Amino acid sequence: MIKQLLPYAKKYKIPAILSPIFICGEVVIEVFIPYMMSVIIDCGIQGEPLSEKSGFVVDLLLRAGFGEKSGIDLVISMGLLMVALAICSLLCGVGSARCAAKAGMGFGSEVRKALFDKVQDFSFSNIDTFSTGSLITRMTTDINTVQMAFMMVIRMFIRAPLMFALAFSMAVGINLQLSLVFLVVAPILAVVMIFIGMKSFPRFQAMFKKYDRFNNFIQEKLIGIRVVKAYVRARHEKEQFRISNDELRDSSIYAEKLIILNGPFMTIGISACILGVLYFGSRLILAGDMALGEMMSFITYIQQILMALMMISMIFVMTVMARASISRIVEVLTTQPDISDKDADPDASVTDGSVEFRNVCFKYKKDGKRNVLEHINLRIRSGETIGILGGTGSAKTSLVQLIPRLYDVTEGEVLVGGKNVKEYTLLHLREAVSMVLQNNVLFSGTIEENLRWGDENASEAEVRAAADAAAADDFVMSFPDQYQTDLGQGGVNVSGGQKQRLCIARALLKKPKILILDDSTSAVDTATDAKIREGIRAKHGDMTTIIIAQRVNSIQHADRIVVLDNGKINAVGTHEELLAQNKIYQEVYYSQQEGAIAG
Predict the structure, then answer these.
(1) pTM of the predicted model, to two decimals?
(2) Residue in 530, 558, 523 with CA at minimum distance from that of residue 544
(3) Can you give the pLDDT at residue 393?
(4) Can you tell me the distance from the alpha carbon of 585 to that of 571, in angstroms, rounded to the nearest whole number?
(5) Which element (helix H / strand E) includes 434?
(6) What's the DSSP call for residue 335?
Protein backbone atom coordinates (compact mmCIF):
# COMPACT_ATOMS: atom_id res chain seq x y z
CA MET A 1 0.00 0.00 0.00
CA ILE A 2 2.79 2.43 0.91
CA LYS A 3 4.44 1.93 -2.49
CA GLN A 4 1.28 3.19 -4.17
CA LEU A 5 1.52 6.53 -2.32
CA LEU A 6 5.27 7.10 -2.58
CA PRO A 7 5.12 8.45 -6.18
CA TYR A 8 3.17 11.43 -4.83
CA ALA A 9 6.24 12.45 -2.83
CA LYS A 10 8.44 12.53 -5.93
CA LYS A 11 7.83 16.23 -6.52
CA TYR A 12 9.22 16.95 -3.05
CA LYS A 13 12.05 14.43 -3.03
CA ILE A 14 14.77 17.05 -2.45
CA PRO A 15 13.39 18.32 0.90
CA ALA A 16 12.43 14.72 1.75
CA ILE A 17 16.09 13.72 1.29
CA LEU A 18 17.56 16.81 2.93
CA SER A 19 15.48 16.39 6.10
CA PRO A 20 17.07 13.05 7.12
CA ILE A 21 20.52 14.38 6.19
CA PHE A 22 20.04 17.33 8.54
CA ILE A 23 18.71 14.94 11.17
CA CYS A 24 21.84 12.79 10.92
CA GLY A 25 24.00 15.84 11.51
CA GLU A 26 21.89 16.89 14.48
CA VAL A 27 21.99 13.43 16.07
CA VAL A 28 25.74 12.95 15.61
CA ILE A 29 26.45 16.29 17.28
CA GLU A 30 24.01 15.60 20.14
CA VAL A 31 25.72 12.28 20.82
CA PHE A 32 29.18 13.87 20.92
CA ILE A 33 28.25 16.60 23.41
CA PRO A 34 27.69 14.38 26.53
CA TYR A 35 31.09 12.77 26.07
CA MET A 36 32.69 16.20 25.97
CA MET A 37 30.95 16.97 29.24
CA SER A 38 32.62 13.91 30.76
CA VAL A 39 36.00 15.18 29.51
CA ILE A 40 35.37 18.55 31.22
CA ILE A 41 34.54 16.84 34.54
CA ASP A 42 37.19 14.12 34.52
CA CYS A 43 40.05 15.99 32.82
CA GLY A 44 39.31 19.68 33.29
CA ILE A 45 38.04 19.56 36.87
CA GLN A 46 39.43 16.33 38.40
CA GLY A 47 42.74 16.55 36.51
CA GLU A 48 42.76 13.18 34.73
CA PRO A 49 45.00 13.36 31.62
CA LEU A 50 43.01 13.36 28.38
CA SER A 51 45.45 10.88 26.86
CA GLU A 52 44.44 8.22 29.39
CA LYS A 53 40.89 8.18 28.06
CA SER A 54 39.97 5.99 25.11
CA GLY A 55 37.59 6.21 22.20
CA PHE A 56 37.49 7.82 18.76
CA VAL A 57 36.11 11.10 20.21
CA VAL A 58 39.23 11.35 22.41
CA ASP A 59 41.38 10.65 19.35
CA LEU A 60 39.71 13.55 17.52
CA LEU A 61 40.22 15.86 20.49
CA LEU A 62 43.89 14.88 20.80
CA ARG A 63 44.47 15.55 17.10
CA ALA A 64 42.78 18.94 17.51
CA GLY A 65 45.32 19.86 20.21
CA PHE A 66 43.08 19.57 23.28
CA GLY A 67 45.56 17.12 24.90
CA GLU A 68 47.96 19.99 25.53
CA LYS A 69 45.42 21.82 27.65
CA SER A 70 44.40 21.19 31.25
CA GLY A 71 42.47 22.74 34.08
CA ILE A 72 40.44 25.86 33.39
CA ASP A 73 41.91 26.20 29.87
CA LEU A 74 40.53 22.80 28.94
CA VAL A 75 37.17 23.62 30.53
CA ILE A 76 36.87 26.89 28.58
CA SER A 77 38.05 25.37 25.30
CA MET A 78 35.73 22.38 25.59
CA GLY A 79 32.88 24.65 26.68
CA LEU A 80 33.29 26.88 23.61
CA LEU A 81 33.42 23.81 21.38
CA MET A 82 30.22 22.48 22.96
CA VAL A 83 28.48 25.84 22.36
CA ALA A 84 29.58 25.83 18.72
CA LEU A 85 28.37 22.25 18.28
CA ALA A 86 25.07 23.07 20.00
CA ILE A 87 24.50 25.94 17.53
CA CYS A 88 25.29 23.60 14.62
CA SER A 89 22.89 21.05 16.06
CA LEU A 90 20.19 23.72 16.36
CA LEU A 91 20.67 24.78 12.74
CA CYS A 92 20.49 21.18 11.58
CA GLY A 93 17.30 20.70 13.59
CA VAL A 94 15.70 23.81 12.09
CA GLY A 95 16.73 22.74 8.57
CA SER A 96 15.32 19.27 9.11
CA ALA A 97 12.01 20.57 10.47
CA ARG A 98 11.62 23.02 7.60
CA CYS A 99 12.38 20.42 4.93
CA ALA A 100 10.12 17.84 6.61
CA ALA A 101 7.25 20.31 6.77
CA LYS A 102 7.65 21.22 3.11
CA ALA A 103 7.90 17.60 2.01
CA GLY A 104 5.05 16.44 4.27
CA MET A 105 2.61 19.21 3.35
CA GLY A 106 3.48 18.84 -0.32
CA PHE A 107 3.02 15.08 -0.16
CA GLY A 108 -0.38 15.51 1.50
CA SER A 109 -1.38 18.07 -1.12
CA GLU A 110 -0.44 15.75 -3.98
CA VAL A 111 -2.31 12.78 -2.47
CA ARG A 112 -5.37 14.97 -1.87
CA LYS A 113 -5.24 16.21 -5.46
CA ALA A 114 -4.88 12.65 -6.77
CA LEU A 115 -7.83 11.53 -4.67
CA PHE A 116 -10.02 14.40 -5.89
CA ASP A 117 -8.96 13.82 -9.51
CA LYS A 118 -9.80 10.15 -9.16
CA VAL A 119 -13.30 10.93 -7.90
CA GLN A 120 -13.79 13.25 -10.89
CA ASP A 121 -13.12 10.27 -13.17
CA PHE A 122 -15.64 8.04 -11.37
CA SER A 123 -18.81 7.00 -13.08
CA PHE A 124 -22.10 7.32 -11.22
CA SER A 125 -21.86 3.65 -10.22
CA ASN A 126 -18.40 4.23 -8.70
CA ILE A 127 -19.72 7.24 -6.79
CA ASP A 128 -22.58 5.09 -5.50
CA THR A 129 -19.97 2.80 -3.90
CA PHE A 130 -18.49 5.51 -1.66
CA SER A 131 -20.66 7.84 0.37
CA THR A 132 -19.94 11.57 0.25
CA GLY A 133 -19.11 11.61 3.95
CA SER A 134 -16.63 8.77 3.48
CA LEU A 135 -14.86 10.58 0.65
CA ILE A 136 -14.67 13.76 2.74
CA THR A 137 -13.15 11.82 5.66
CA ARG A 138 -10.59 10.25 3.35
CA MET A 139 -9.62 13.61 1.84
CA THR A 140 -9.30 15.30 5.23
CA THR A 141 -8.79 13.12 8.32
CA ASP A 142 -7.11 10.20 6.55
CA ILE A 143 -4.77 12.33 4.45
CA ASN A 144 -3.84 14.47 7.48
CA THR A 145 -2.96 11.29 9.37
CA VAL A 146 -0.83 9.97 6.50
CA GLN A 147 0.77 13.38 6.06
CA MET A 148 1.79 13.49 9.74
CA ALA A 149 3.10 9.93 9.49
CA PHE A 150 5.17 10.87 6.43
CA MET A 151 6.71 13.85 8.24
CA MET A 152 7.41 11.63 11.22
CA VAL A 153 9.04 8.98 9.03
CA ILE A 154 11.50 11.33 7.33
CA ARG A 155 12.45 12.82 10.70
CA MET A 156 11.83 10.55 13.68
CA PHE A 157 12.15 7.31 11.73
CA ILE A 158 15.72 8.35 10.94
CA ARG A 159 16.44 10.18 14.16
CA ALA A 160 15.24 7.54 16.64
CA PRO A 161 17.16 4.47 15.35
CA LEU A 162 20.28 6.54 14.68
CA MET A 163 20.13 8.15 18.12
CA PHE A 164 19.60 4.75 19.71
CA ALA A 165 22.50 3.15 17.81
CA LEU A 166 25.01 5.97 18.38
CA ALA A 167 24.05 6.59 22.02
CA PHE A 168 24.15 2.86 22.75
CA SER A 169 27.54 2.50 21.07
CA MET A 170 28.87 5.42 23.11
CA ALA A 171 27.44 3.86 26.28
CA VAL A 172 29.10 0.54 25.41
CA GLY A 173 32.37 2.40 24.84
CA ILE A 174 32.13 3.88 28.32
CA ASN A 175 31.12 0.66 30.12
CA LEU A 176 30.10 -2.57 28.41
CA GLN A 177 28.73 -4.29 31.51
CA LEU A 178 26.46 -1.39 32.42
CA SER A 179 25.11 -1.30 28.86
CA LEU A 180 23.76 -4.84 29.15
CA VAL A 181 20.83 -3.43 31.13
CA PHE A 182 19.27 -2.25 27.83
CA LEU A 183 19.56 -5.70 26.24
CA VAL A 184 17.29 -7.12 28.94
CA VAL A 185 14.53 -4.51 28.61
CA ALA A 186 14.55 -3.85 24.83
CA PRO A 187 13.20 -7.28 23.65
CA ILE A 188 10.33 -7.12 26.15
CA LEU A 189 9.32 -3.66 24.92
CA ALA A 190 9.54 -4.84 21.27
CA VAL A 191 7.18 -7.79 21.91
CA VAL A 192 4.69 -5.52 23.70
CA MET A 193 4.68 -2.98 20.83
CA ILE A 194 4.15 -5.66 18.18
CA PHE A 195 1.27 -7.18 20.13
CA ILE A 196 -0.44 -3.80 20.65
CA GLY A 197 0.01 -2.90 16.96
CA MET A 198 -1.58 -6.12 15.71
CA LYS A 199 -4.59 -5.70 18.00
CA SER A 200 -5.03 -1.95 17.42
CA PHE A 201 -5.14 -1.89 13.61
CA PRO A 202 -8.66 -3.38 13.18
CA ARG A 203 -9.94 -1.07 15.91
CA PHE A 204 -8.74 1.99 14.02
CA GLN A 205 -10.34 0.68 10.83
CA ALA A 206 -13.66 0.44 12.65
CA MET A 207 -13.16 3.93 14.10
CA PHE A 208 -12.68 5.49 10.64
CA LYS A 209 -15.90 3.83 9.44
CA LYS A 210 -17.66 5.55 12.33
CA TYR A 211 -16.10 8.81 11.12
CA ASP A 212 -17.62 8.15 7.68
CA ARG A 213 -21.09 7.62 9.11
CA PHE A 214 -20.74 10.66 11.37
CA ASN A 215 -19.72 12.89 8.45
CA ASN A 216 -22.62 11.55 6.39
CA PHE A 217 -24.99 12.39 9.22
CA ILE A 218 -23.60 15.93 9.62
CA GLN A 219 -23.69 16.63 5.90
CA GLU A 220 -27.25 15.41 5.50
CA LYS A 221 -28.60 17.35 8.47
CA LEU A 222 -26.85 20.60 7.62
CA ILE A 223 -28.00 20.47 4.00
CA GLY A 224 -31.55 19.78 5.18
CA ILE A 225 -31.51 22.26 8.09
CA ARG A 226 -34.45 24.20 6.61
CA VAL A 227 -36.58 21.05 6.52
CA VAL A 228 -35.57 20.26 10.10
CA LYS A 229 -36.73 23.70 11.22
CA ALA A 230 -39.90 23.57 9.12
CA TYR A 231 -40.95 20.32 10.80
CA VAL A 232 -39.74 21.39 14.25
CA ARG A 233 -37.46 18.37 14.45
CA ALA A 234 -34.52 20.08 16.16
CA ARG A 235 -34.98 18.10 19.38
CA HIS A 236 -35.09 14.82 17.45
CA GLU A 237 -31.98 15.73 15.42
CA LYS A 238 -30.10 16.74 18.58
CA GLU A 239 -30.82 13.31 20.01
CA GLN A 240 -29.71 11.62 16.77
CA PHE A 241 -26.54 13.70 16.80
CA ARG A 242 -25.88 12.69 20.41
CA ILE A 243 -26.22 9.02 19.51
CA SER A 244 -23.95 9.31 16.44
CA ASN A 245 -21.43 11.41 18.34
CA ASP A 246 -21.38 8.98 21.26
CA GLU A 247 -20.84 6.05 18.89
CA LEU A 248 -17.84 7.85 17.37
CA ARG A 249 -16.51 8.71 20.84
CA ASP A 250 -16.88 5.13 22.07
CA SER A 251 -15.23 3.75 18.95
CA SER A 252 -12.33 6.21 19.32
CA ILE A 253 -11.88 5.33 22.99
CA TYR A 254 -12.00 1.61 22.14
CA ALA A 255 -9.21 2.11 19.58
CA GLU A 256 -7.12 4.46 21.70
CA LYS A 257 -7.36 2.67 25.04
CA LEU A 258 -5.34 -0.26 23.72
CA ILE A 259 -2.66 1.72 21.92
CA ILE A 260 -2.15 4.12 24.84
CA LEU A 261 -0.93 1.12 26.85
CA ASN A 262 2.20 1.54 24.81
CA GLY A 263 3.07 4.63 26.89
CA PRO A 264 2.89 3.00 30.35
CA PHE A 265 4.88 -0.04 29.19
CA MET A 266 7.53 2.25 27.74
CA THR A 267 7.63 4.25 30.97
CA ILE A 268 8.01 1.10 33.05
CA GLY A 269 10.80 -0.14 30.79
CA ILE A 270 12.58 3.21 30.87
CA SER A 271 12.28 3.48 34.64
CA ALA A 272 13.64 -0.03 35.06
CA CYS A 273 16.66 0.89 32.88
CA ILE A 274 17.36 4.04 34.90
CA LEU A 275 17.11 2.22 38.21
CA GLY A 276 19.38 -0.54 36.96
CA VAL A 277 21.99 1.89 35.65
CA LEU A 278 21.96 3.99 38.83
CA TYR A 279 22.30 0.91 41.04
CA PHE A 280 25.08 -0.83 39.15
CA GLY A 281 26.77 2.45 38.14
CA SER A 282 27.05 3.70 41.70
CA ARG A 283 28.69 0.41 42.70
CA LEU A 284 31.22 0.78 39.87
CA ILE A 285 32.07 4.34 40.96
CA LEU A 286 32.54 3.25 44.56
CA ALA A 287 34.77 0.42 43.38
CA GLY A 288 36.85 2.87 41.31
CA ASP A 289 36.00 1.12 38.02
CA MET A 290 34.16 4.13 36.59
CA ALA A 291 34.86 7.88 36.68
CA LEU A 292 32.24 10.38 37.81
CA GLY A 293 32.25 12.19 34.48
CA GLU A 294 31.78 8.91 32.65
CA MET A 295 28.83 8.12 34.88
CA MET A 296 27.23 11.50 34.14
CA SER A 297 27.73 11.12 30.39
CA PHE A 298 26.45 7.54 30.64
CA ILE A 299 23.27 8.82 32.31
CA THR A 300 22.89 11.37 29.49
CA TYR A 301 23.24 8.57 26.97
CA ILE A 302 20.59 6.67 28.90
CA GLN A 303 18.29 9.63 28.47
CA GLN A 304 19.08 9.79 24.75
CA ILE A 305 18.48 6.09 24.34
CA LEU A 306 15.22 6.28 26.25
CA MET A 307 14.17 9.35 24.26
CA ALA A 308 14.88 7.36 21.09
CA LEU A 309 12.70 4.55 22.43
CA MET A 310 9.90 7.05 23.15
CA MET A 311 10.19 8.38 19.60
CA ILE A 312 10.05 4.83 18.26
CA SER A 313 6.93 4.36 20.37
CA MET A 314 5.37 7.52 18.85
CA ILE A 315 6.29 6.34 15.34
CA PHE A 316 4.70 3.02 16.16
CA VAL A 317 1.43 4.63 17.31
CA MET A 318 1.28 6.93 14.28
CA THR A 319 2.10 4.04 11.94
CA VAL A 320 -0.79 1.97 13.24
CA MET A 321 -3.19 4.88 12.66
CA ALA A 322 -1.63 5.73 9.29
CA ARG A 323 -1.88 2.14 8.13
CA ALA A 324 -5.67 2.22 8.49
CA SER A 325 -5.83 5.59 6.70
CA ILE A 326 -3.51 4.46 3.90
CA SER A 327 -5.71 1.43 3.21
CA ARG A 328 -8.76 3.69 2.87
CA ILE A 329 -6.96 6.15 0.58
CA VAL A 330 -5.55 3.39 -1.61
CA GLU A 331 -9.01 1.83 -1.84
CA VAL A 332 -10.21 4.94 -3.69
CA LEU A 333 -7.05 5.40 -5.77
CA THR A 334 -7.09 1.79 -6.99
CA THR A 335 -10.79 1.77 -7.85
CA GLN A 336 -11.06 1.56 -11.61
CA PRO A 337 -13.76 3.76 -13.16
CA ASP A 338 -16.49 1.60 -14.69
CA ILE A 339 -16.69 3.97 -17.65
CA SER A 340 -13.58 4.97 -19.60
CA ASP A 341 -12.35 5.93 -23.07
CA LYS A 342 -10.68 2.55 -23.57
CA ASP A 343 -12.56 1.67 -26.79
CA ALA A 344 -13.15 5.26 -27.95
CA ASP A 345 -11.93 6.91 -31.13
CA PRO A 346 -10.17 10.11 -29.97
CA ASP A 347 -11.08 11.88 -33.21
CA ALA A 348 -14.76 10.94 -33.24
CA SER A 349 -17.18 13.79 -32.58
CA VAL A 350 -20.96 13.91 -32.41
CA THR A 351 -22.26 15.11 -35.78
CA ASP A 352 -25.98 15.34 -34.98
CA GLY A 353 -28.45 14.90 -32.14
CA SER A 354 -30.01 11.59 -33.18
CA VAL A 355 -30.36 8.97 -30.42
CA GLU A 356 -31.15 5.28 -30.70
CA PHE A 357 -31.67 2.63 -28.04
CA ARG A 358 -31.16 -0.89 -29.40
CA ASN A 359 -32.53 -3.64 -27.19
CA VAL A 360 -31.18 -1.87 -24.10
CA CYS A 361 -31.29 -3.51 -20.69
CA PHE A 362 -29.83 -1.90 -17.59
CA LYS A 363 -29.34 -2.56 -13.90
CA TYR A 364 -27.37 -0.49 -11.41
CA LYS A 365 -25.39 -3.41 -9.99
CA LYS A 366 -23.92 -6.09 -12.21
CA ASP A 367 -24.96 -8.79 -9.76
CA GLY A 368 -28.48 -7.35 -9.44
CA LYS A 369 -31.36 -9.79 -9.81
CA ARG A 370 -33.60 -7.68 -12.06
CA ASN A 371 -33.16 -5.09 -14.74
CA VAL A 372 -34.24 -1.50 -14.18
CA LEU A 373 -34.79 -1.13 -17.94
CA GLU A 374 -36.01 -4.05 -20.08
CA HIS A 375 -35.37 -4.35 -23.83
CA ILE A 376 -35.74 -0.68 -24.75
CA ASN A 377 -35.92 0.01 -28.49
CA LEU A 378 -36.38 3.65 -29.46
CA ARG A 379 -35.17 5.94 -32.25
CA ILE A 380 -35.06 9.72 -31.81
CA ARG A 381 -34.37 11.86 -34.85
CA SER A 382 -31.99 14.81 -34.67
CA GLY A 383 -33.83 18.00 -33.76
CA GLU A 384 -36.87 16.12 -32.46
CA THR A 385 -38.55 16.98 -29.17
CA ILE A 386 -39.36 13.89 -27.13
CA GLY A 387 -41.41 13.79 -23.97
CA ILE A 388 -41.06 10.96 -21.44
CA LEU A 389 -43.87 10.22 -19.02
CA GLY A 390 -44.23 7.52 -16.43
CA GLY A 391 -44.98 6.85 -12.81
CA THR A 392 -42.47 7.03 -9.98
CA GLY A 393 -39.93 4.23 -10.37
CA SER A 394 -40.62 3.69 -14.06
CA ALA A 395 -36.89 4.33 -14.83
CA LYS A 396 -37.29 7.60 -16.75
CA THR A 397 -34.11 9.10 -15.31
CA SER A 398 -32.22 5.83 -15.71
CA LEU A 399 -33.06 5.83 -19.42
CA VAL A 400 -31.71 9.31 -20.20
CA GLN A 401 -28.60 8.86 -18.03
CA LEU A 402 -27.43 6.24 -20.52
CA ILE A 403 -27.14 8.84 -23.30
CA PRO A 404 -24.14 10.78 -21.88
CA ARG A 405 -22.78 7.54 -20.34
CA LEU A 406 -23.37 8.51 -16.74
CA TYR A 407 -24.06 4.79 -16.56
CA ASP A 408 -23.35 2.10 -19.15
CA VAL A 409 -25.92 -0.32 -20.50
CA THR A 410 -25.94 -3.87 -19.20
CA GLU A 411 -27.11 -5.25 -22.54
CA GLY A 412 -27.71 -3.73 -25.97
CA GLU A 413 -26.30 -0.41 -27.09
CA VAL A 414 -27.04 3.30 -27.18
CA LEU A 415 -26.21 5.25 -30.34
CA VAL A 416 -25.74 9.02 -30.58
CA GLY A 417 -25.17 10.59 -33.99
CA GLY A 418 -25.30 7.11 -35.51
CA LYS A 419 -22.41 5.74 -33.41
CA ASN A 420 -22.27 3.70 -30.24
CA VAL A 421 -21.66 6.07 -27.33
CA LYS A 422 -18.62 3.98 -26.38
CA GLU A 423 -16.92 5.03 -29.62
CA TYR A 424 -16.75 8.65 -28.41
CA THR A 425 -14.43 9.94 -25.74
CA LEU A 426 -16.36 11.04 -22.67
CA LEU A 427 -15.24 14.61 -23.37
CA HIS A 428 -16.64 14.69 -26.91
CA LEU A 429 -19.83 12.87 -25.96
CA ARG A 430 -20.65 14.99 -22.93
CA GLU A 431 -19.79 18.21 -24.73
CA ALA A 432 -22.59 17.33 -27.15
CA VAL A 433 -25.10 16.50 -24.39
CA SER A 434 -26.45 18.87 -21.76
CA MET A 435 -28.40 17.36 -18.92
CA VAL A 436 -30.34 19.23 -16.27
CA LEU A 437 -30.71 16.77 -13.41
CA GLN A 438 -33.60 16.45 -11.00
CA ASN A 439 -31.44 17.81 -8.21
CA ASN A 440 -30.67 21.32 -9.43
CA VAL A 441 -27.21 22.25 -8.18
CA LEU A 442 -25.73 25.74 -8.19
CA PHE A 443 -22.38 26.59 -6.71
CA SER A 444 -20.97 29.38 -4.59
CA GLY A 445 -20.29 32.43 -6.72
CA THR A 446 -22.19 34.84 -8.92
CA ILE A 447 -25.00 34.01 -11.32
CA GLU A 448 -22.71 34.70 -14.27
CA GLU A 449 -20.00 32.41 -12.91
CA ASN A 450 -22.55 29.61 -12.54
CA LEU A 451 -23.92 30.08 -16.05
CA ARG A 452 -20.43 30.03 -17.52
CA TRP A 453 -20.12 26.41 -16.47
CA GLY A 454 -21.87 25.86 -19.79
CA ASP A 455 -19.27 27.87 -21.72
CA GLU A 456 -16.57 29.78 -19.86
CA ASN A 457 -15.70 31.74 -23.00
CA ALA A 458 -19.25 32.86 -23.81
CA SER A 459 -19.86 36.56 -24.38
CA GLU A 460 -22.20 38.56 -22.15
CA ALA A 461 -24.74 38.60 -25.00
CA GLU A 462 -24.64 34.79 -25.21
CA VAL A 463 -25.05 34.49 -21.46
CA ARG A 464 -28.11 36.74 -21.51
CA ALA A 465 -29.54 34.95 -24.57
CA ALA A 466 -29.32 31.59 -22.80
CA ALA A 467 -30.92 33.08 -19.67
CA ASP A 468 -33.67 34.65 -21.79
CA ALA A 469 -34.45 31.34 -23.47
CA ALA A 470 -34.77 29.77 -20.00
CA ALA A 471 -37.07 32.62 -18.83
CA ALA A 472 -34.41 33.68 -16.32
CA ASP A 473 -33.18 37.00 -17.71
CA ASP A 474 -36.09 39.05 -16.36
CA PHE A 475 -35.72 38.02 -12.72
CA VAL A 476 -31.91 38.20 -12.87
CA MET A 477 -32.04 41.78 -14.17
CA SER A 478 -34.41 42.67 -11.31
CA PHE A 479 -31.65 41.97 -8.76
CA PRO A 480 -29.54 44.99 -7.72
CA ASP A 481 -26.33 43.30 -8.89
CA GLN A 482 -28.01 41.51 -11.81
CA TYR A 483 -25.68 38.81 -13.19
CA GLN A 484 -23.08 39.60 -10.53
CA THR A 485 -25.51 38.60 -7.76
CA ASP A 486 -23.85 36.23 -5.30
CA LEU A 487 -25.90 33.04 -5.08
CA GLY A 488 -24.44 31.81 -1.81
CA GLN A 489 -23.61 28.17 -1.17
CA GLY A 490 -25.88 25.92 -3.22
CA GLY A 491 -27.89 28.86 -4.58
CA VAL A 492 -29.67 29.62 -1.30
CA ASN A 493 -30.42 33.18 -2.42
CA VAL A 494 -32.84 32.16 -5.16
CA SER A 495 -36.12 30.24 -5.14
CA GLY A 496 -36.54 26.68 -6.38
CA GLY A 497 -38.11 27.81 -9.64
CA GLN A 498 -35.41 30.41 -10.24
CA LYS A 499 -32.75 27.81 -9.53
CA GLN A 500 -34.29 25.49 -12.11
CA ARG A 501 -34.32 28.23 -14.75
CA LEU A 502 -30.68 29.11 -14.09
CA CYS A 503 -29.73 25.45 -14.44
CA ILE A 504 -31.57 25.27 -17.78
CA ALA A 505 -29.82 28.48 -18.93
CA ARG A 506 -26.48 26.97 -17.97
CA ALA A 507 -27.26 23.88 -20.04
CA LEU A 508 -28.36 25.96 -23.05
CA LEU A 509 -25.20 28.08 -22.94
CA LYS A 510 -23.29 24.90 -23.71
CA LYS A 511 -25.00 24.85 -27.14
CA PRO A 512 -25.45 21.08 -27.07
CA LYS A 513 -26.77 18.87 -29.82
CA ILE A 514 -28.91 17.05 -27.25
CA LEU A 515 -30.66 18.69 -24.29
CA ILE A 516 -32.12 16.51 -21.54
CA LEU A 517 -34.48 18.11 -19.02
CA ASP A 518 -35.14 15.69 -16.18
CA ASP A 519 -38.27 17.07 -14.50
CA SER A 520 -36.51 20.43 -14.58
CA THR A 521 -39.57 22.70 -14.55
CA SER A 522 -41.45 21.11 -11.66
CA ALA A 523 -41.00 24.23 -9.47
CA VAL A 524 -42.26 26.75 -12.04
CA ASP A 525 -45.84 27.63 -12.92
CA THR A 526 -47.42 26.42 -16.14
CA ALA A 527 -47.10 29.83 -17.84
CA THR A 528 -43.37 29.99 -17.16
CA ASP A 529 -43.04 26.34 -18.19
CA ALA A 530 -44.64 27.18 -21.54
CA LYS A 531 -42.39 30.22 -21.91
CA ILE A 532 -39.28 28.08 -21.34
CA ARG A 533 -40.40 25.54 -23.95
CA GLU A 534 -41.12 28.32 -26.41
CA GLY A 535 -37.75 29.96 -25.73
CA ILE A 536 -35.89 26.69 -26.30
CA ARG A 537 -37.85 26.00 -29.49
CA ALA A 538 -37.32 29.51 -30.87
CA LYS A 539 -33.60 29.80 -30.20
CA HIS A 540 -32.48 26.18 -30.30
CA GLY A 541 -34.87 24.58 -32.75
CA ASP A 542 -32.20 22.34 -34.32
CA MET A 543 -31.36 20.76 -30.96
CA THR A 544 -32.73 17.38 -29.92
CA THR A 545 -34.72 17.92 -26.73
CA ILE A 546 -35.74 15.16 -24.34
CA ILE A 547 -38.11 16.26 -21.59
CA ILE A 548 -38.99 14.13 -18.57
CA ALA A 549 -42.04 15.55 -16.86
CA GLN A 550 -44.76 14.71 -14.39
CA ARG A 551 -47.18 17.20 -15.98
CA VAL A 552 -48.73 16.37 -19.30
CA ASN A 553 -48.83 20.09 -20.13
CA SER A 554 -45.03 20.13 -20.17
CA ILE A 555 -44.76 17.51 -22.93
CA GLN A 556 -48.05 17.50 -24.83
CA HIS A 557 -46.55 19.66 -27.60
CA ALA A 558 -43.59 17.31 -28.08
CA ASP A 559 -43.16 15.60 -31.45
CA ARG A 560 -43.57 12.27 -29.72
CA ILE A 561 -44.18 11.09 -26.18
CA VAL A 562 -42.74 7.91 -24.67
CA VAL A 563 -44.77 6.26 -21.91
CA LEU A 564 -42.63 4.17 -19.59
CA ASP A 565 -44.08 1.60 -17.21
CA ASN A 566 -41.97 -0.48 -14.86
CA GLY A 567 -38.82 -0.10 -16.95
CA LYS A 568 -40.47 -0.92 -20.27
CA ILE A 569 -41.83 1.20 -23.11
CA ASN A 570 -45.58 1.00 -22.86
CA ALA A 571 -46.37 3.26 -25.81
CA VAL A 572 -44.92 5.89 -28.13
CA GLY A 573 -46.98 8.51 -29.97
CA THR A 574 -48.21 12.07 -30.13
CA HIS A 575 -50.37 13.62 -27.43
CA GLU A 576 -53.51 13.04 -29.50
CA GLU A 577 -52.63 9.43 -30.32
CA LEU A 578 -51.83 8.50 -26.74
CA LEU A 579 -54.88 10.31 -25.40
CA ALA A 580 -57.02 8.25 -27.73
CA GLN A 581 -55.34 4.86 -27.26
CA ASN A 582 -53.15 4.57 -24.15
CA LYS A 583 -54.77 3.93 -20.77
CA ILE A 584 -51.76 5.05 -18.67
CA TYR A 585 -51.56 8.35 -20.52
CA GLN A 586 -55.33 8.83 -20.27
CA GLU A 587 -55.29 8.26 -16.52
CA VAL A 588 -52.48 10.76 -15.97
CA TYR A 589 -54.01 13.36 -18.27
CA TYR A 590 -57.54 13.25 -16.89
CA SER A 591 -56.40 13.11 -13.25
CA GLN A 592 -54.35 16.28 -13.83
CA GLN A 593 -57.23 17.97 -15.62
CA GLU A 594 -59.56 17.19 -12.74
CA GLY A 595 -56.97 18.52 -10.31
CA ALA A 596 -56.63 21.72 -12.32
CA ILE A 597 -60.42 22.23 -12.41
CA ALA A 598 -60.72 21.50 -8.71
CA GLY A 599 -57.91 23.96 -8.03
Answers:
(1) 0.68
(2) 558
(3) 79
(4) 9
(5) strand 433-436
(6) P
